[in-house]
UniProtKB/TrEMBL annotation:
One of its GO terms (molecular function) is molybdate ion binding. This is Molybdate ABC transporter substrate-binding protein. Gene3D superfamilies: Periplasmic binding protein-like II (3.40.190.10). Pfam families: SBP_bac_11. The keyword Transferase does not apply. GO terms for biological process: molybdate ion transport. It comes from Opacimonas viscosa. The gene is modA.
């Protein structure tokens, strides 16, 4: 995934190990509130980092990238007009799920069952393994899969049209209890640098 690529590149440049803990932004926020020993939090929105900042559990958040939500319909080249099942990430804890819920309310075709995944990675897996014909996921997941597996199904997606395309500005914050504040700051600046922003743009994000 893009985050792993960036972590590996940063490790090579600075000679340090970067351990990634994946999860829905809301779940990771709760873990930080409960004292999880994280150094930096890369969220899928600005709201969760801002919450930690207001609770004095993290420094003021900064945006690092903007995500894009797309319809993925792997077995069809176009979005079907009738959908029996659709997968989204859980809107209670996942910003992409919250954005997807709004899209469903605004412009969805006729829908059947809505399946909630624990996070955006789980949503991708459910669609990829055939648990539902359609889902709303991040474009970055498809870009990564296209590059890694080069299968036609990862090109079968439709963009959410404006004005229903949500703004998914993603924020990062340094956790207040970290002993690696300088290194965490260096990692954030690394992600925000032009070279990494170009890479993220290639991977389906909108650069800052």
């Amino acid at each position: 995934m893009p985050a792993q690529h960036l972590a590996t590149k940063f490790s090579e440049l600075h000679g340090v190990d970067v351990e990634l803990i994946a999860g829905a932004s809301g779940v990771l926020t709760t873990q930080i509130q409960q004292g999880a020993p994280f150094d930096i939090f890369l969220a899928a929105d600005m709201a969760y980092p801002q919450l930690l900042f207001t609770q004095q559990l993290a420094l003021r958040p900064e945006p690092y990238v903007q995500g894009l939500l797309v319809w993925w319909h792997p077995e069809q080249t176009t979005l079907p007009t009738r959908i029996s099942k659709v997968v989204i990430a859980d809107p209670q804890v996942a910003p992409y799920g919250k954005a997807a819920q709004k899209v469903l309310q605004d412009i969805a075709p006729e829908l059947g069952q809505v399946i909630l995944a624990t996070n955006i990675n789980h949503a991708f897996t459910l669609i990829d393994t055939g648990h539902a014909p359609v889902g709303l996921i991040s474009l970055s997941h498809l870009r990564y899969a296209q590059i890694r597996f080069d299968l036609p199904k990862y090109s079968h997606f439709s963009r959410v049209p404006l004005p229903s395309q949500p703004t998914l500005l993603q924020g990062a914050t340094i956790v207040a209890t970290t002993d690696e504040g300088k290194l965490a700051r260096k990692f954030l600046k690394f992600i925000q640098a032009p070279a990494q922003q170009r890479y993220l743009q290639q991977m389906g994000y909108t650069a800052l």
